[in-house]
């Protein structure tokens, strides 16, 4: 009996334990099934935030949830690109963040909002072109960072002329002194530049270097002679004649000569010695009174190949103020008016002397106030105004004469 009772009790315990075991096994099976299901639904997604790329494993279907799971928080200004993402399959979720950058261009700072990942892409976005000669504090491949300052210095092209050579240099800033240093040019103590060394460089500026050299040189210098005048009663008044030609003297002069770029710029006299004295010129001045026009010297000694005191063998004719001899108006080419019957003004017409010249014709002075035909262009050819009228012109006729130039021009 005892053995039977014990057997019944054990069977009851075995059923309870069996039930618990079965329940545990079911729970484990359900958990494992769920876990295996979750593992089966996970997939890899690549997340690219600007230039930073990383991968996550997720079973989320929505891009925002996936980004949140990866601790990527979107701002309102950020751009989300899911064109390469497939929900539940994978792909790439791209996030372009808007960054604020400062661009300093030749000292002027401007602020921009950009989405470009690199400096080069940001410049493309902003339409900023950087040449190979420009200087920039970042590489075009450097990543964009919020608040960064990109400093661009554009190169200036300047021309340098030195020692007979011309060259162009690209320089970002500075003065003429900086350009000289860049070109490795040494300036002597007297050398200088134009513009000066402290001048700020500008685009397309031309800088010249001037080499200065001083030399002591002895040179021969001609010295002028003086002119002395002697009165001569045999010459008509106003007529001069060189009695003795002057001879220039000669000095040896030592100079301190300044050369700029090989050419003489100035000189300073240091000493002088005379090796030959000048001989004065002697000029005879006529005092003999003459008939005819009065005049004053104008100081002109030569003009158009003629000179005062020059003697010429000439030929003369006569004319009056009638219509047969001219226009009949009595107006001369110089503006002087003539008429028949007037006091003799001692006028002549010729084309080869300046208007206003005074010529002594066989002892009488005449003033050139008129022009005439081509015949009066021949050297020595003159036409003498005759106020007595047309018959007097025939009476005085034509002939040869000796002319002496007393004055040239008014």
Secondary structure: helix percent: 10-25%
| Uncertain residue ranges | 1-13, 32-36
Category by helix and strand content: alpha+beta
**What's the gyration radius in Å?**
57 Å
Q: In this structure, how is the largest beta sheet organized? A: 6 strands, mixed, barrel
Distance between the termini: 180 Å
Proportion of residues in extended strands = 35-45%
* Order of adjacent strands in the largest pleated sheet: 23-27-24-26-25-28
The residue-averaged pLDDT reads 88
Query: What's the tally of helices?
Result: 5
Secondary structure: number of strands: 28
* Global morphology: elongated
Describe this structure as you would to a colleague.
There is one protein chain. The chain is built from 5 helices and 28 strands. The strands form 7 sheets. A 6-stranded mixed beta barrel has the order 23-27-24-26-25-28. The protein has 410 residues and is an alpha+beta fold.
Task: Give me a quick take on this structure.
The protein has 410 residues and is α+β, with helices and mostly antiparallel strands. The protein is 17% helix and 42% strand. The model is unreliable at 1-13 and 32-36 (pLDDT under 50).
Which descriptors apply to this entry?
single chain; 410 residues; alpha+beta; five-stranded mixed sheet; 5 helices; disordered N terminus
What secondary-structure arrangement, pairings included, does this model have?
Blueprint: H1 2-41, E1 43-49, E2 52-58, H2 63-69, E3 79-81, E4 85-86, E5 90-96, E6 99-105, E7 108-114, H3 119-126, E8 135-136, E9 149-153, E10 156-162, E11 165-171, H4 176-182, E12 192-194, E13 206-210, E14 212-223, E15 227-236, E16 240-244, E17 249-260, E18 263-276, E19 281-288, E20 291-292, E21 302-303, E22 306-307, E23 311-319, E24 347-349, E25 358-361, E26 364-370, E27 381-385, H5 390-396, E28 399-407
Parallel strand pairs: 1-5, 6-9, 10-13, 15-19, 20-26, 23-27, 24-26
Antiparallel strand pairs: 1-2, 3-5, 4-5, 6-7, 8-9, 10-11, 12-13, 14-17, 16-19, 17-18, 21-22, 23-28, 24-27, 25-26, 25-28
């Amino acid at each position: 009996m005892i053995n039977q009772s014990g057997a019944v009790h054990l069977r009851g315990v075995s059923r309870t334990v069996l039930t618990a075991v079965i329940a545990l096994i079911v729970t484990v099976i359900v958990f494992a099934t769920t876990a295996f299901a979750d593992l089966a639904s996970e997939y890899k997604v690549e997340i690219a935030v600007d230039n930073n790329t990383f991968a996550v494993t997720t079973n989320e279907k929505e891009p925002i949830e996936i980004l949140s799971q990866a601790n990527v928080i979107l701002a309102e200004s950020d751009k989300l690109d899911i064109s390469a993402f497939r929900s539940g399959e994978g792909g790439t979720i791209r996030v372009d963040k808007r960054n604020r950058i400062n661009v300093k261009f030749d000292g002027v700072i401007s602020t921009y909002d950009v989405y470009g990942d690199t400096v080069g892409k940001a410049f493309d976005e902003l339409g900023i072109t950087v040449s190979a000669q420009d200087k920039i504090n970042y590489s075009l491949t450097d990543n964009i960072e919020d608040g960064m300052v990109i400093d661009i210095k554009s190169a200036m092209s300047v021309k340098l002329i030195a020692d007979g050579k011309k060259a162009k240099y690209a320089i970002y800033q500075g003065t003429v002194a900086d350009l000289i240093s860049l070109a490795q040019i040494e300036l002597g103590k007297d050398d200088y530049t134009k513009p000066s060394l402290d001048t700020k460089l500008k685009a397309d500026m031309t800088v010249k270097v001037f080499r200065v050299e001083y030399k002591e040189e002895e040179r021969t210098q001609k010295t002028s002679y003086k002119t002395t005048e002697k009165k001569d009663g045999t010459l008509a008044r106003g007529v001069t004649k060189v009695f003795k030609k002057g001879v220039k003297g000669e000095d040896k002069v030592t100079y301190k000569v300044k050369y700029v770029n090989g050419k003489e710029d100035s000189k300073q006299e240091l000493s002088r010695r005379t090796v030959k004295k000048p001989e004065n010129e002697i000029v005879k001045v006529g005092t003999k009174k003459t008939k005819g026009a009065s005049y004053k010297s104008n100081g002109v000694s030569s003009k158009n190949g003629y000179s005062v005191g020059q003697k010429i063998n000439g030929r003369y004719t006569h004319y009056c103020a009638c219509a047969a001899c001219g226009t009949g108006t009595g107006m001369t080419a110089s503006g002087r008016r003539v008429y028949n019957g007037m006091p003799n003004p001692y006028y002549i017409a010729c084309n080869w002397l300046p208007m206003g010249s005074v010529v002594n014709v066989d002892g009488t002075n005449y003033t050139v106030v008129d022009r005439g035909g081509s015949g009066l262009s021949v050297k020595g050819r003159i036409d003498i105004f005759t106020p007595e009228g047309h018959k007097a012109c025939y009476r005085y006729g034509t002939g040869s004469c000796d002319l002496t130039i007393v004055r040239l021009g008014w």
